[in-house]
Amino acid sequence: MPKISVEIPAELLADLDEHVGDDGKFVNRSDAVRASIRKNLDLLDEIDARHDRLDGDAPSTAAGSGEGSDE
Predict the structure, then answer these.
(1) pLDDT tens, position by position, 19-59
(2) Per the record, which residues fall in region Disordered (predicted)?
């Protein structure tokens, strides 16, 4: 799996960290970021579909991209 590096404001990182760990929804930051990206892409696909902007040949982020999938 490729790695990327991003700069995140301290306040946003603190908010993210509240959801990570034993008491959080995510095991680690990477899981939280992947889930957030998937959700955002799915939302963008829904908006595009409502406005007939989806390209029929482009792969949909919503299709087959469950939480356990890292493809």
Answers:
(1) 999 989 999 999 999 999 999 999 999 999 988 887 765 55
(2) 49-71
Interhelix angle for 10-17 vs 29-50, to 10°? 100
* Res 52: pLDDT: 85
> Is pLDDT above 60 for 14?
yes
CA Rg value for the chain: 15
Residue type present at position 56: G
**CB within 8 A of 19, min separation 6: which ones?**
25, 26, 32
Cβ(33)–Cβ(13) under 8 Å? Answer: no
